[in-house]
Specification:
It is a single chain. The chain is mainly alpha-helical. The protein contains 19 helices and six strands. It has a two-stranded antiparallel ribbon. A two-stranded parallel sheet has the order 3-4. A two-stranded antiparallel ribbon has the order 5-6. It starts with 14 loop residues before the first helix and ends with a helix. The protein binds arginine (ARG). The site of arginine has 10 residues, from helix 6.
């Protein structure tokens, strides 16, 4: 049991207590950030004259050595240490003797862990944004390819109006673009350095907090030391952004699962992204999409869990906050993995254009356009709506689509219909005339694709 404290204790910690309290099993995840933070702290201690430049060099060299040895597998992070901070410090002292004992001057594990977690989350925000960009690029390619792939658009899961696959995918493009931007704004808000806050009340050493902030790429130091050691808002914001990403992925997965089903057959997932059944030889299952959908619950769980943990914690640091780590690490790994797998899955799927078009052609997706035809010919919209309703009822009875009814049948229901009704309700017209920005028509779609192209350039 290697601890950083013990001076005021007369007994050894109970083994169960030690294990319950220890965090080395998970906080080793930010080993890199811990070393990075310590290096900045030591450089600052040197610059304000608390350490000599020889001491600074010795400690920096020691920290670099520890980092290298761990990366190269020569030094193992073991449960013999209470946490990652103790591991680094104990190893430093082993290597540099008394000089290493000066590393923790003007610092507490409270501001140290606040810093490590912040550095870790900031790095992970950047990584999550990178994987999101890969997904956005695949969505962008699919949009460009499917500007004229007609399909039914749904409301209430009932066929509503014809759209295109580019338009449908474009909806997700917008969601994931917002996710990308949301992560960016969280990063901006959290980019303040808590180092120097000490245990809760700063320190009597004349630390240069601006210097450490700058060395670590922060915009500046945090402005309240009690808040600095007890703020986990940014982790909650991050978990909330991750939950939204999962919500978006989950909705898309649900659609992929339906589209890939025997009933829809809109798409076919690649063999590499499907799984078989141990008993039913004909099966090709969309397990990846289902797993992504399923893992959404796990990420929401992390968000709810941390919100609940933080509720009612008095200022300033309390050990409850150690609970922020495992669930955050798990959520991050889950989300990055899900985005990457989802990206591969949609990148390799095949689209059955004919099936999609055929589905749009049946189900009266052009009924609104038929009503609009009457309106353009002088019938008030409410009347037109009623007339088309009757026409649909008649067509269902005849087992025909609107395009298949004869002009005579149209005129029986309303004499306003003329030969040009067929042109007005053709799928091509229904989609291609919808050209206000954001709509599925090709002009509008190409404009959006151009805007997205610009968004993605140099990313
Ligand atoms: N493992 C602790 C955490 O994750 C580090 C801070 C410990 N501070 C303390 N006063 N015991 O929060």
């Amino acid at each position: 049991m290697a601890q950083l404290w013990g001076g005021r204790f007369t007994k050894e910690t109970d083994k169960l207590v030690y294990n319950f309290n220890a965090s080395i099993g998970f906080d080793q995840k930010f080993f890199k950030q811990d070393v990075e933070g310590s290096k900045a702290h030591v450089k600052m201690l040197g610059s304000v004259g608390i350490l000599t430049s020889d001491e600074v060099d010795t400690i920096l060299e020691g920290l670099t050595g520890i980092y290298q040895d761990v990366i190269e597998g020569k030094l193992e992070i073991t449960s013999e240490y209470e946490d990652i901070h103790s591991f680094v410090e104990a190893n430093l002292i082993e290597r540099t003797g008394d000089t290493g004992k000066k590393l923790h001057t003007g610092r507490s594990r409270n501001d140290q862990v606040a810093l490590d977690m912040r550095l870790y989350v900031r790095d992970e925000i950047d990584e999550t944004r990178d994987v999101l960009i890969k997904l956005l690029k695949v969505l962008h390619r699919l949009m460009k390819e499917h500007v004229d792939t007609y399909m039914p658009g749904f409301t209430h899961l009932q066929k509503a109006q014809p759209v295109t696959l580019a338009h449908h995918i474009g909806a997700y493009m917008e969601m994931f673009k917002r996710d990308y931007k949301r992560l960016g704004s969280i990063r901006e808000r959290m980019n303040e350095c808590p180092l120097g806050a000490g245990a809760l009340a700063g320190t009597t050493y004349q630390l240069d907090r601006r210097m450490t902030a700058e060395l670590l790429g922060f915009d500046g130091p945090t402005l309240n030391s009690m808040d600095s050691v007890s703020d986990r808002d940014y982790v909650i914001e991050f978990l909330s952004a991750l939950s939204l990403i999962m919500m978006h992925l989950s909705r898309f997965c649900e659609e992929i699962i339906m589209w890939n089903s025997n009933e829809y057959k809109f798409i076919e997932l690649d063999d590499a992204y499907s799984t078989g059944s141990s008993i039913m030889p004909q099966k090709k299952n969309p397990d990846i999409a289902e797993l992504v959908r399923g893992k959404t619950g796990r990420v929401y769980g992390a968000l709810t869990s941390l919100l609940t943990t933080m509720k009612g914690i008095p200022l300033a640091y309390n050990k409850d906050m150690q609970e922020d780590k495992e669930l955050t690490f798990d959520a991050i790994d889950t989300v990055k993995g899900c985005i990457a797998l989802f990206t591969g899955m949609i990148d390799t799927m095949t689209v059955n254009k004919d099936r999609m078009k055929d589905s749009a052609a049946h189900g009266f997706t052009n009924a609104t356009d038929a009503a609009d035809y009457l309106v353009k010919n002088g019938v008030p919209f409410r009347d037109a709506h009623g007339i088309i309703g009757r026409l649909v009822l008649y067509a269902i009875d005849q087992n025909k689509s609107l395009d298949e009814l004869s002009l005579h049948e149209y005129q029986e229901i309303c004499p306003v219909f003329k030969e040009d009704i067929y042109e007005a309700i053709s799928m091509k017209t229904c989609v291609e005339k919808r050209n206000t920005i954001g709509a599925p028509g090709p002009e509008a779609m190409n404009e959006v694709i151009r805007i997205n192209e610009e968004f993605l350039s140099n990313k």
